[in-house]
Design a protein that fits this description.
D-Maltodextrin-Binding Protein, domain 2, eight-stranded mixed beta sheet, alpha/beta, Arc Repressor Mutant, subunit A, 11 helices
């Protein structure tokens, strides 16, 4: 047998001839001349080293070799068409996957409504939202395992770029109980002796607080370190201690009077920014670019912290 070269164009011509059972009808469908179609089939037979059709006076009949080639060839052409459709849908942002890795506050409070509105416009796009801390979100984008990251802190990484996404405010949060009800402010010295609940190392909340306050949580009376804002909130409810949290995260509890905020004496408002994290060395897919444009243009992601009254 000669070395087989299954050129996709020849394969497509062959399948049309097989399905039509006629050279002229196949040529008509392919917008080719009958002689061109006959020539392509002869070339294919020469490459394979066997006849694909028996030419009878008024019809053609596929040989056993032709039947085998058609069965496999049609499958190849169907896969090609499926690949082209999937690529078109992906490039047109109509269908495909999108992986986002975000730190706690963006992932739990800012992104869900944006994802919901984006899904309403492009329902065939499958979005995976991974919740982590700022450090992990940046690492996921850096490694290419996430298309986009949303973080509460900028990390030093040569290949990453950061686009401003939203602004929030951090506050010292305590339960609105008998111990704390009449207290409106606290000195850093007293605060460091109180039972304190911290976010984990790598958390944007923790990094922002330490940087802007000039305080180091290692000097505090740390009761525990938590990788979830909700876990910190539950620990506050249980009376385990107090913590510095995002006003976005405690808006409901403050509005209901369950929690209150305290002023740390000598320290002004601690604002924090949230950023979209991009890998400068990797091309952004059309779907990721579409979501990024949508998220940045979506006015509803404006921080709720600016809408929360000053409960201090």
């Amino acid at each position: 047998m000669n070395k087989i070269r299954l050129d996709l164009n020849l394969l497509e011509v062959f399948c049309h001839v097989y399905e039509e059972g006629n050279f002229s009808r196949a040529a008509e469908k392919l917008s080719l001349s009958q002689s061109t179609v006959s020539g392509h089939i002869q070339n294919l037979e020469r490459y394979i080293g066997a006849r694909l059709f028996d030419r009878l006076p008024r019809r053609i009949v596929p040989t056993r070799v032709g039947q085998i080639l058609y069965r496999r060839g049609r499958s190849i052409l169907d896969e090609k068409e499926a690949a082209l459709r999937e690529l078109k849908n992906f490039l047109d942002c109509a269908e495909g996957p999108l992986t986002i890795c975000g730190s706690t506050i963006p992932s739990e409070y800012l992104l869900p409504p944006i994802v919901a509105r984006f899904h309403a416009r492009r329902p065939a796009i499958r979005i995976e939202l991974r919740i982590s801390d700022s450090q992990t979100a940046c690492n996921e984008v850096l490694s290419g395992s996430a298309d986009l990251g949303f973080a509460g802190a900028k990390l030093d990484a040569v290949d990453l770029s950061f686009l401003h996404f939203a602004t929030d405010e951090l506050a010292l949060v305590a339960p609105n109980n008998k111990e704390w009800r009449r207290i409106t402010s606290i000195s850093p010295e007293i605060l460091m002796r109180k039972p304190f609940l911290a976010r984990e190392v790598g958390s944007g909340t923790r990094m922002t607080f330490e940087k802007q306050s000039g305080l180091t949580l290692d000097d505090f009376n740390l009761i525990g370190s938590f990788s979830s804002t909700n876990a910190v909130k539950e620990a506050i409810r249980a009376g385990l201690g107090i913590s510095v949290l995002s006003l976005l995260a405690v808006a409901g509890e403050i509005a209901s009077g369950e929690f209150k905020t305290l002023q740390i004496e000598g320290i002004g408002k601690i604002r924090r920014d949230f950023f979209v994290v991009l890998n400068q060395k990797l091309s952004l897919s059309s779907i990721a670019a579409a979501f990024l444009d949508f998220a940045l243009d979506d006015s509803s992601h404006a921080t709720q912290a600016t809408l929360i009254p000053n409960f201090r």
